[in-house]
Structure prediction request, 662 residues.
Amino acid sequence: MSRLVIWDSEQAKANLYTRLKDAKEDRRMLELRWNDNERIIFNTSGETQSANASFSLEDTYTGISGVDQSDNSVGINYAFKNFRFIHAQLSANPPTVLPRPTSNDPEDRRRADAADRLIRFALREFRMQEIVDKTSLNTLLYGTGFTKSFWDVTKGDPLEMDEEGNFVMEGEFNIKVPNVWDLYIDPDASRWEDVNYIFERIIVPWEEAKYRFPDKIEVLKRYRKQRLEGERDHTQPSQSLIKNLKYDVVELYEYWERGTPMNGFLGRHCICSADGDLITDLMENPEQYQAPSKSKEDKRKRLPVAVLPYQIFTDIDVPGTVWGKSFVEYTTALQDNLNRIDNVTLENMQAHGVARLILPEGAEIADGSITNSPWDIVKITGSQPFHFAQPMQLPQVIPDLMGRYKLGMDDMAGVNEAMFGQQSRETSGFSMQYATNQGNMIRRRLFNKYVLFVEDIYNSYLRIVQKHWQIPRTIKVLGKEKAFESTDIKGADIDGGYDLIVEYGASLSLDPTTRREEIITLMPLFEKAGVESRQILQMLKLNELSGMYDTLELAKDRQREIFEEMIAKGIYIEPEELQDHKNMLKYAYYYLMTTEFKYLTEDEKVLIRKHVREREMVSAQGAGAAALGGMAPGPAPAGPGGTPPPLAGGAVPPPAGLIGLE
Prediction:
């Protein structure tokens, strides 16, 4: 049977110091690669510090002036082009998150609907898509990205203030993207599920640190960092090159431990220093969740289990480690060689702009012959005649070599010309689409982990809301049918009864050009399914057809205005003749199926139904009149037995009273 392991203050300091030191040592080799990735992606020419961007001739040949050597550096960052394309691809096609009830029970459907509203609320309130995009950027750059979702007791509205001036806040859900350089993971874990603890380096401004930890001022002074402008921190073996300059802060570490049998499944949490000094008391992990019952018959009481507040997203899997690798690492050497070729080519072009006249040793030069001309005159010994020195010619293999390097970088990134809308020869649309899909196949594993990552984020968000929203909160959300809703929700409203279904590629692309192509391809299926051509045009949303769209929307807008006026004033409005009854009825039928109509009062529903029925009658009368449009006005001649004669094809015309003929 497992027994609890309790840390006292001395054990806590020793264990925290040892674990942090081991985690830093385990990550040391990764930091060197992260630095190279940052240099190659965020440098305009894609250069890395370890690469020699140009050939230097001064150390080999003497007598050549430094003016001949160019100080300019040139290069095209193909690695950044591919990096930006893949990042945009992930951003343009986010996974679809849909809560689905686990049974046909109305209560389960109600909870799934409440969870769906919370997800739509989070998209706008907490900018979930922006969080996901920033994490995917870290994943592509470093190979690993993280999000941190937790209940922040320092957020929300202030509730009260004690005598010492400390505020008690309401608390609020918080999600952020921590810097990968600030996270130190359990070095003994070989997969994310085995990670037992994480250290996160937190930079606290000195003023805030004194406010949050007033009883640790003397300890904080030892870890206070005050730097002059331009000064860098050389205390760590490696560090990020991106905005690492701090002026007056305290560097601390936040420790999170997962719930295990050794800690009673409660975990551990504290804020400490790099030496293990406790800044806050060692306490249980506040991120604890109680697993819901798997069935309604399961009445067992389950103990809460502490979890880590982080979600991970990796690019290239590396067996035996939690960290992933970035595709940028495989393109670094290729980008460096491309830069070398570009710079050599530039220097050779500059050399062609300098003409050197070679004269024999006995030649005499007049005093006024030396000018500021770009021609250099060089004297040589011997009896050679005068001639011009030609610059060195570039090897013929250079263009082919550059093409191979660029192709190799595209292969490492998994992109091809079809993805950029380019084609080297005339090909069919199907061939272009097939090439694009096959190129994306190399990222199928990345897409699968993308789905799991987004699912973890929203599951964590719903668990936190379920635990901490004990009092109903009013949220404003754009509903399923594009209706803006205001509803009250509390944590108990989403307590089980649904599952999150997260799918990638289950909806049309967000990219407008790709979306239009997909819609046009699926147009026959849409038409067979009963989708009107008018609705398909609205899905295309071509900007140059704005006037045409305004015309298509007239019937819908007029009918909506009639319904809104009837509801607002409580009066009945009769349908008028000579209107676009067909398309106005289409919107009316759609409106009768919306939740907006569902929650109207009975009197309002009666008015709307009456209006729809009368518009149907007016529309039928208009259709009958159109069928007789070719007949002369006046009473129709009587047929045998006094009945109107049949129309063409044997159809019997409607009675005269329905078409206005007496």
Summary: Residues 476 and 486 are 4 Å apart (CA to CA). The first strand starts at residue 96 and ends at 101. The radius of gyration is 37 Å. DSSP finds 19 helices and 19 strands in the chain.
